[in-house]
UniProtKB/TrEMBL annotation:
Protein name, per record: histidine kinase
Subcellular location: Membrane
Membrane topology recorded in Swiss-Prot or TrEMBL: Multi-pass membrane protein
SMART domains cross-referenced by the UniProt entry: HATPase_c, HisKA, PAS
CDD domains, per the entry: HisKA (cd00082), PAS (cd00130)
GO biological process: osmosensory signaling via phosphorelay pathway; regulation of DNA-templated transcription
Organism: Epilithonimonas zeae
Amino acid sequence: MINFFSALGTDALFEILKQSNDATAIYTGEEINIQFANDAMLEIWGKDESVRGKRFEDALPEMEGQPFTQLLKNVWRTGEVYEAHNTAATLEINGKMITSFFDFTYKPIKNKEGEVYCILHTATNVTERQKAWELVQDREDQLRVASEGLNSLNEELRSSNEDLATINKEYVATNKQLDNANRQIYFLNDQLKQENFHLLLDKKVQENDISDLSLKNKSLSGINNDLQNLNDTIVKLNEKLTTSEMSFRDLIMQAPVAMMLVKGDDYIVTMINVTMLELIGKDVSIVGKPLFEELPELKGQRAANMLVDTYEKGLRHSDEANPVTLNRNGQLEQGYFNFSYTPYVENGVVTGVIDMALEVTTQIVANQKLENTIREKIKLEESLRNSEQRLRAILETMAEGVGVTDATGQMVYANPMAQQILGLKESEIKKRTYYDALWQNLRIDGTPLPPEEHPMAIMMTTKKPVFDYEIAVQPPDRDKFYLSINAAPMFDSAGNLIGGIGTFMDVTARRLASQGKDDFISIASHELKTPVTALKASLQLLQRATTSLSADTRARLLEQSVKSLDKLTKLIDGLLDTSRMDHGQLKLNKQSFIISELFEDCCSNFAQNTDQKITFEGDVDQEVIADHQQIGQVMVNFINNAIKYAPESDILIKAEVLHKKEVKFSVRDQGPGIPEDKIGHLFERYYRTNYQGQKFSGLGLGLYICADIIKNHGGKIGVESEVGKGTTFWFILPL
């Protein structure tokens, strides 16, 4: 008997399930009865152990209107696995209806016949993961909105740039017109000076030319008006340009995401909002300074290279979850950023880069932790599955039966050996408790076993293991058998008894051997005592009354003494042969002899002891190579049994050659026959049968020794019998 714990190991299946941090439950029946739920599952449900044994829909009434009860029933009916991820479930926890998200699996467990006998439910609360994903989604939405805002800003900038380019063209044209007008004014002034000079020289000429000068003054006034209009236009254009620049600056400053504008080959920080200053850990003093001098740690990083590429090639770049190392709060630290680089174009030339960034370090770290957690759980689940498979393989190949009960004594598991020993399918076993009256449990002495004396009940009561406790079981349709049971309690994490594990083995052979030895000692004592007593009585009479006894009486006493000695010798020889067989010392002395010689030797033993007719027939002249004495012992035993158990029948002894390779010897009588249920025991050690209730003398070793003799000759031995028609004992020897 191997120790229960060493056989099962510390990672026993139900202990693993009970102690697992992963929520696990087991359901049975079409009504989805909760047979097992570990602490992790009870915590998810917000329930206590009282739910065990209840229907799923009764234990969790808040599930009404949710799909889970029907899903479980579908799995029970179809035998197909159901698996889901990120599924919302609303449960009543501490009096409040709380919605959480779960990954879960409903897995049907089937027996060898493919019948579902339970559903294994595993679940993982992924609410935090769901919230993290939703937060990431919100951040992505914010980034998308910001990107759309940036695109709109870029469109506005492009439009403003186009307007500025148009204004610049108009400004250039106006300047040209202004230059022309100035030249004209200069020219007119020069003409005016000449005219005035001429007027001073020649008043008369002046008077004559007054009308022409008035006309020219009017022309000059018109030109001055045109110049004023051009100046007004230039002022408006400058105001518009200033307004456009202010709008762009306001857009950067008020943007919901971090933004800045760097310009020139030195990447001078021209505009930057507060969000960007907080992101890079700087203040407004950075404005007007080269970016890479203020943030030298950026050099060589991918983000910096992409910014330079945007400026040099005029190509827009963007990236997500890009790792960037920044010196913030006096120490280098790595963060993760989503960013976009857009060329800043003035008069068709790239003069800078617009940088928009969003830090997603919290989300990335949360995702990494979540991914690590998921990987660890997947690894743990794989380990648990492997452990479960190994344990199941161990349980299913164990030489002992293994049964598991819940706290009420209800059977919830039986391994294949348990099913074989008990002669029942697992589905039938699981309908019973260990103390069910259908078992017909008995004490060793055959009296009914009270439920409280069952080893499982003792274990449940004491909460301590029980070892090698023997009981008998009397099924209604088969012979009584004996079990040696080990029982061990199972506890939850709080130390509460939740069931028990029993291992057992069929010790019927051991029990019968023990009983056989006891019976043998009793029988041997009686059988040996009988001839010894008779011999002693005869010898005492001869000793005490030697002179007073007649010659006939002395002869009869001596004959009786010899018979007693012969009987005693026969009993002792049987015991010695058995001992030699046990130690492999029953040697063969093979020699050639004719079957008829064997028959004649055997008949000489019975000629004067019986009136029954003994007939020999068949291939009696066949030569055989075997141990003459041992084969004769087998024949004498067969014939003696026929005389003993069929005293009114003739006896037929037959030898028959089979296929020129074997010879079959048989001894047939027409006596009462042997019941079929006893035939299988005839060649067992110490087995004795009776004839019509009458016991015959002997140790129950004769046929056992015969079987071993024939086996040592490489032959076969058997019996055929039919009640009321007689019996044939036979054996076959190779030629």
